[in-house]
């Protein structure tokens, strides 16, 4: 039994190391050890195993690590059937062409949201939206949508989370969730990032299940609150249409 626990722990640590590369393309041994909060000797052994299997590569010139080619082999076998990021991409591009701003898809993952697809604005000044970015569920237009239209347990877990920021008014947040549910969309102006604004609506599939949040984002001086409220019906209609494409 103890051996099984050690094996599971080693697997979890190896996965934690892999997840270090979601925001960085190259990292040193010291940087990885700091991020996973493990001794460098332990991290070095795990990196050696991952490197041996092709999941991690080490640059001999810089002594930095990066993801290996074996991941490309695995990703090639991912099924695109039912993937909202693939199915909805043409509709997202049409919405971008209509509104001129960056279009994103977000899904809930635990107490965070992840951008799973993005179509960048054609404006010279725009809000760049990297796919794979993680953000907290307690702030931002898409977070309000994902929590407001989710099962009640998600809201309860979020409010009880130890990561809930000190000083952030939970009652005000609950009020925003109620407003979002009634209106069918949410807006945010410089809530998560200075100078940025966003409007979001839920994508609900044919079975009535919340699949994702559709968001339009851009500079706050261009994407004003008044403009977002004007565009909200177009965005809600686009989200409704996208939902009919999913099951």
Describe the structure.
Residues 8-69 form the HTH iclR-type domain. This is IclR family transcriptional regulator. This protein is 45% helix and 20% strand. By secondary structure, the chain is an alpha+beta fold. A hairpin with a 5-residue loop joins strand 7 (196-204) and strand 8. Helix 1 crosses helix 3 (40-52) and helix 7 packs across helix 9. The mean pLDDT is 89.
List keywords for this structure.
247 residues, alpha+beta, 6-stranded antiparallel beta sheet, 10 helices, 20% strand
Protein structure class = alpha+beta
What's the helical proportion of residues? 40-55%
Helix tally?
10
Give average pLDDT, whole number: 89
The strand count comes to 8
Residues in β-strands, percent: 15-25%
Radius of gyration: 20 Å
Order of SSEs, N→C?
HHHEEHHHEEEHHHEEEH
- Provide the spatial order of strands within the biggest beta sheet: 5-4-3-8-7-6
Short description:
The chain has 247 residues and is an alpha+beta fold. The chain is built from 10 helices and 8 strands.
Compile the SSE list and pairings.
Blueprint: H1 2-19, H2 29-36, H3 40-52, E1 56-59, E2 64-67, H4 70-76, H5 84-87, H6 89-99, E3 102-109, E4 112-119, E5 134-136, H7 141-148, H8 152-160, H9 170-183, E6 186-189, E7 196-204, E8 210-219, H10 225-243
Helix pairs in contact: 1-3, 2-3, 6-10, 7-9
């Amino acid at each position: 039994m103890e051996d099984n626990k050690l094996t599971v722990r080693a697997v979890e640590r190896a996965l934690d190391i892999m997840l270090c590369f979601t925001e960085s393309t190259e990292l040193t041994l010291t940087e990885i050890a700091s991020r996973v909060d493990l001794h460098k000797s332990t991290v070095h052994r795990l990196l050696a195993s991952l490197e041996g299997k092709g999941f991690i590569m080490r640059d001999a010139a810089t002594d930095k690590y990066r993801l290996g080619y074996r991941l490309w082999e695995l990703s090639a076998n991912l099924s695109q059937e039912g993937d909202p990021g693939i199915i909805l991409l043409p509709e997202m591009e049409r919405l971008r062409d209509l509104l001129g701003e960056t279009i994103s898809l977000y899904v809930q993952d635990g107490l965070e949201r992840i951008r799973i697809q993005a179509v960048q604005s054609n404006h010279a000044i725009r809000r760049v939206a990297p796919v794979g970015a993680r953000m907290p569920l307690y702030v931002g237009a898409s977070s309000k949508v994902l929590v407001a239209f989710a099962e009640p347990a998600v809201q309860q877990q979020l409010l009880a989370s130890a990561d809930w920021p000190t000083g952030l008014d939970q009652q005000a947040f609950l009020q925003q969730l109620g407003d979002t549910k009634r209106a069918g969309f949410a807006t945010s102006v410089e809530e998560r990032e200075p100078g940025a604004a966003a409007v979001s609506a839920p994508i609900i599939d044919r079975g009535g299940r919340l699949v994702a949040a559709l968001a339009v984002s851009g500079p706050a001086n261009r994407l004003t609150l008044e403009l977002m409220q004007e565009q909200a019906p177009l965005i809600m209609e686009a989200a409704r249409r996208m939902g009919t494409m999913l099951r």
